[in-house]
C-alpha cells in the first residue's frame, strides 16, 4: 500500500537512442567544461573529456577561474585535494554559475572525513539546481544537506548508479568492478556528466546518459585489458569509440 504522504517514483532506464542523442549533441557542440578538480584525477579527467568529444579546461588560479568559467558550458567542482587557494576559487565559480546560469557538478570527495570538506559542501549546496555526484559513502554523509538543497540532482555511483531529481529517477546497471581499481574514474565520471549537462537541460537525463555510455565503455575496456593499468587506457579508447550502434547492441531493447 502506498502512503499518501510518500511519493514513489520508479527508476527508469534510458533508451539507447536517448543516450545517443545526448552524446551526439556533445560531439556536435563540443562544450568546454571548466574543471576545478583534484591533482590526482586532473590528467585522466581531461583525457576522458577529450575522448567524449568535449573540451577540458583545468584552470585553478583564484584570480582567473571566474573568467575561465564564464564562457564554459558547465562547471565541475571536485574537492579531492582541496587547498587554501582552491578553497577561495570555489565561491568565485559559484558566483559565475549563479550569474550566468551555468550547470554545476559537485564531487564531494571524502566529505565524510573532514570538517573542512563538510563546510565547503554546505557552501556549494546553497547554490540551487546543483548536481552532486559521489559514491555511496559520500552521498550518505551528505544526506541531510542534500535533503535541504533546492533543486538538487543526486547521483550515487557504484555497481548500480542511482540518479534522482525532482523531475526524474534513473538507474544505470552498466559498468565493471575494474572501474574501482583505477583512481579518478569516479572523478572523471563527474566531468562527463558536466559535459552532458552543457547540452541537456534535464540534469537527471544528462547524468543517466553519461553514466550509461561510461559504464558500457567500462564493460568493453574490461574485455580488452590485461589489468588496471591497461584498463585505464582501454577505457579512454572505448569512450572515444562509443557510438549509437554500440549503445543499441549493449543496452538491448529495454534494458
Ligand atoms: N562494482 C561496480 N561494478 C560496476 N561498475 C562500477 C562498480 N563500482 C563503481 N562502478 C562504476 O565506476 C564509476 C565510478 O564510480 P565510483 O562509485 O567507484 O566512484 P568513486 O568512488 O568516486 O571513484 P574515485 O574517487 O576513485 O574517482 C561509475 O561509473 C560506476 O558506475
Ligand atoms: C586518491 C585521492 N585522494 C584525493 S582525491 C583522490 C582521487 C580519487 O577521488
Ligand atoms: Mg570519488
Describe it for me?
- The protein has 255 residues and is of the alpha/beta class.
- It has a single domain (16-240), classed as UDP-N-acetylmuramoyl-L-alanine:D-glutamate ligase (3-Layer(aba) Sandwich).
- It is built from 11 helices and 8 strands.
- Helix 1 runs antiparallel to helix 11 and helix 2 packs across helix 8 (185-197).
- The model is unreliable at 1-7 (pLDDT under 50).
- The structure holds adenosine-5'-triphosphate, 2-(4-methyl-thiazol-5-yl)-ethanol and magnesium ion.
- Magnesium ion (MG) is lined by residues 109, 135, 186-187.
Helix-strand blueprint:
Blueprint: H1 16-29, E1 32-36, H2 42-52, E2 55-57, H3 65-70, E3 74-78, H4 84-100, E4 104-107, H5 115-124, E5 131-135, H6 136-141, H7 143-148, E6 153-157, E7 161-164, E8 169-172, H8 185-197, H9 203-224, H10 228-241, H11 244-251
Helix pairs in contact: 1-9, 1-11, 2-8, 2-10, 8-9, 9-10
The structure holds adenosine-5'-triphosphate, 2-(4-methyl-thiazol-5-yl)-ethanol (TZE) and magnesium ion.
